[in-house]
Specification:
This protein is an all-alpha fold. It contains twelve helices and no strands.
Length: 297
């Protein structure tokens, strides 16, 4: 016990096993974003998280990675039977199966990425509370995991397109418009990350709101032209409908698949404006709340 309040604590306590070095934890103010250099240094961690996500997703399953091929085909088949044959939804001259398959691919990537980003901090609570790493690495790994799945889905779509092209039911897409594909998935990624980070920041404190995201995804799907074309939306509601950033993405993707000329209109510009605000808001809330994620989890 120290008798003198002015006694000096040795700076280096390594020589005395009874003394432990004092560790001071300083909480940063403002945004807890240390730049893209930190994300680059965490690239190996991101790679490991992607590998873990893929392995855990198909581990101990009967068909394993074959689900990557079967799921879009089965979803498109169900939509073709229900919305194409029974309901009679018009597909703007596209073969019904290709129309619904294209919409399914976009929606699958968007919904799974949103769900993964929104739940990732609760799902990875054990990792977050044990070691420091840039938390944004988890949403990035979710995007890359679903991007790999989407690449497989696009290969399936190409095979289906070849069959319908050979039958003369579908024109050959204009290769000069292939720039649309990265643009579409960039827009879908930003939409999922913006909204997902917003829900992640909120649901860490209010866990019951995670159920709201499930309802949101169900409503969001029917507010997006996944099972119907944009042309079915009355012109007077078209600009209001454009407030959903995913609408423009699905429309562009389908236009490329159908071999139609690509035109970026006011409909798409409004979606990008909303998307930009949503992305910055979601990331701002995420970095704002990241400082004490571990304490609240």
């Amino acid at each position: 016990m120290l008798q003198n309040s002015n006694a000096q604590i040795p700076v280096d306590a390594a020589g005395d096993p009874r003394l432990k070095p004092l560790v001071t934890v300083i909480t940063a103010r403002g945004l807890n974003f240390n730049g893209f250099g930190e994300i680059w240094r965490a690239r190996e961690l991101i790679r490991m998280l992607v590998y873990r996500n893929l392995i855990s997703k198909y581990k101990q399953t009967i068909l394993g990675p074959l689900y990557l091929v079967l799921m879009p085909l089965l979803n498109a088949l169900v939509f073709t039977v229900i919305f194409g044959n029974i309901v009679g939804v018009k597909t703007d001259g596209m073969p019904q199966f290709v129309f619904f398959l294209a919409g399914t691919i976009c929606w699958s990537f968007l919904s799974q990425t949103f769900d993964g980003v929104g739940q990732t901090f609760i799902a990875n609570a054990g990792l977050i509370t044990k070691v420091y790493f840039p938390r944004i690495a988890i949403p990035l790994s979710t995007i890359l995991t679903n991007a790999f799945s989407s690449l497989v889905h696009i290969v399936v779509l190409i095979c289906a397109m070849v069959l319908f092209i050979l039958r003369g039911d579908l024109p050959i897409p204009n290769i000069a418009d292939i720039w649309v594909l990265p643009l579409v998935f960039l827009q879908l990624s930003m939409t999922a990350v913006g909204l997902g980070c917003l829900f992640a920041a909120i649901t860490v404190t209010y866990r019951d709101l995670s159920f709201l995201s499930t309802l949101l995804v169900q409503f969001w799907m029917y507010a997006t032209p996944v099972v119907y074309p944009v042309s079915l939306i009355p012109e007077k509601y078209r600009l209001f409908y454009a407030l959903n950033p995913a609408s423009g993405s699905v429309d562009l993707f389908r236009s490329f698949v159908a071999g139609r000329a690509i035109h970026l209109t006011e409909f798409h510009a409004i979606g990008w404006a909303v998307l930009t605000v949503l992305t910055f808001l979601g990331l701002w809330l995420f970095f704002q709340a990241e400082r004490d994620f571990a304490d609240r989890i």
